[in-house]
Amino acid sequence: MLSFAYSHPEGYDLVMVRCMFVGWLAVLSLGFYTSSFAADAVVTASQAPLQLLKSAQQHLEKSTFPEAYQQAQSAQEQYPLVRDIALHYQAKALRGMGRLREAAAAARQAADQTTRPGRRQTLLLLNAELLLADNALQEALTAYQQFVHLNTTSPMLATARLNIARCQQALKDYPAAAKTLKELYLQQPTHAEAQTAYQLLLQLESEQPTAIIPISDSERLERAERLVQANKAQAALETITPVTGTSFTAEQKARYALLMAKIQFKKRSYSQVSLQLKEILAGQLPPAARDEAQLLLGKAELRLNRDNEALALLRAMAAERGKAVDKALFDAALIHKTNTRPQEARILLERILREHPHSSLKTR
After folding, report:
1. Does pLDDT of 183 surpass 80?
2. d(Cα 84, Cα 90) in Å, to the nearest integer?
3. How far apart are CA 128 and CA 133, in angstroms?
C-alpha cells in the first residue's frame, strides 16, 4: 500500500477514507448499534465524503479547478474526519486557479490538522513551495526552515535546503545563503541538488567574496568519505584531489590514506590497493582505521586470487580480538564457502553466533 501511496497520492487518500468507514461498519457488526435503520444511515452517510473527495480528485485531473475547490470545500466543511485530505485538495485547486497565497494557507491548515506524519511532510513542503511561488520570500524561508527542522530524514530535504539558500540570497542575506549552500554540498553529496548548490556557491563567491568561508581540507575529506560509501568513487576522487593534507591530524592522515585505497578498490585497481594498504598498515593507525584497512586488504587479496594470504590476514585479525572480529570471521567464512569448504565456513559462522550474538552480521 505504501508504494501505491507514493505513486498515487490522491487514490491513496480515497483508499484511506474507505478503510476508515469500513472501521465504522466493524463497530456496527460488534453490536454497538443494534438498529438496522441506524446501520443503513451510517452506511449512506459514509459514502458522502468519499464521493465528494472522488469528485474533487476527478476535477483536479481535468484541471477544472473551481469545481474541484467546491467539492473539496464541501467535504472539508461537512466531514471533520477527512478535513486534512479535503484541505489538501483545496490547496491544489487554489494553486491551479493562481490563488497562491490562499493555497499556501490551505496547505498549512491541512498540515496542522493531519495526524499522519507522511502527509504532514508533504503539506509543509507544499506550503513553502506556494509561498515561494508567490514571492513571499521571508514567509517561504520560515516555512522551508520549519520543514527541514521537522523532517531531517526526508528525501526532499536537499530540495528544501536549496530553496532556503535561494530565499536567503534573494533577501540579500549572503553569508547565510553561502552557509546553507556549503552545508548542502558537503552533507548531501549524492543528491543532484548538491551540484547545483556548488555552482550557486561559486557564483556567489564571484559576486560576494566576503560572504564565503572556503571549503577546508577536512570538510572535503568528510564529503569524499560519504561519496565512497555511496559507491561514487569518481566523485569522491574529484572532491579530494585539491586536498594537500598539510593541516591534517594523524587520524585524518590515516583516514585520507584509507580513503584513497577505497577509491582505488572501487576502480578495481586491486594490486595498487594491496600495496597502499600494506604500506598504511606498517605505520601507526587508530584501531578503527586499522580494522577497516585490514578488512579491505583481505578483500583486495581475494580479488587477486591470493586466498591463502587473505585467510591468514583475517585469522590474525580474529586472534587480535578487536572490534571487527565478527567481520573478519564472516569474510573468512565466505572464502571457505567459495572454495567449497562448507564445514570450515560453518564453524566460523557458528562462532560468530556464539561469541558475537549482537553482531549486525547475525541475520546474514
Report:
1. yes
2. 10
3. 9
